[in-house]
Amino acid sequence: MGEKRESFHLYGSLERAQRSTGSHKAEADVVSMADSSITVDDIEGELFKINRIRDILVRRESELRYMMDDIQLCKEITRLKKELQKLVSLPDNDKSDEDRQREEELLQQIHKLVETRDFLVDDVEFERLREKEEDKEMADFLKSKFQRQKKVLSRRAATRAQQKSSPLAKTGFTLLKECCGCTCSVM
């Protein structure tokens, strides 16, 4: 009795089961991860979309971090202002030297926090302008890419129209290329 052995091959995220017999063909072990109906342009388009989504998420994360920092600064400023308000509301006759010193410290702390918040607002504005410039550059890039693709597609359409108009003028190589594309083993 001949014993058959099963071997499983994993290629990236593609799993393929193959019954192994004594003879292996080199072509049988080659597994493409790409679906044959997907073009390079489709893959590039999908990668572009994924990168764009990632960029949007990174921007949103940055915005949320700025918002959190702003909220924390505002809370701290509000807390310090309330404390300062209590000290200021005391009559000058009832204030101790510690109270006056604390007032000065609170004013300095509030001033530092306000400056920090101003820097934060400036950073947010800088990021907004940078993102706007990136968006403009991306729009220009996409516009030029689509114009190039339109030109290539119009050339292909013109070539196909010319080939269809004179079927007898085709060479054997052209017929093979049209038949099988670039994947033909004869080529």
UniProtKB/TrEMBL annotation:
Name recorded for this polypeptide: Phosphoinositide-3-kinase, regulatory subunit 6a
Species per Swiss-Prot/TrEMBL record: Hippocampus comes
A UniProt-annotated Pfam family: bMERB_dom
Ranges where the BMERB domain occurs: 1-140
InterPro entries associated with the record: BMERB, bMERB_dom
